[in-house]
Design a protein that fits this description.
0% strand; 3 helices; mainly alpha; 64 residues
């Protein structure tokens, strides 16, 4: 994981990070359920060993 991402990850708790996409989705009229801290924790665990930055051509996975 790139250093900048690791630094941000270390500063924000899962619930704090989940609040950002929840706010963005709700402000843009998306009626989806809030993003939970458990979802953030799961994604963090899944990408913890990543050494390369995400690229624009990466497959996007919808948040549940």
């Amino acid at each position: 994981m790139p250093a900048a991402a690791r630094a941000a990850q270390a500063r924000l708790q899962d619930a704090e990070l989940a609040a950002a996409p929840t706010h963005i989705r709700s402000q843009w009229g998306n009626g989806a359920a809030p993003v939970g801290a458990d979802t953030v924790a799961s994604v963090r665990k899944e990408i913890a060993a990543r050494t390369e930055p995400f690229k624009g051509d990466a497959k996007l996975v919808p948040l549940k």
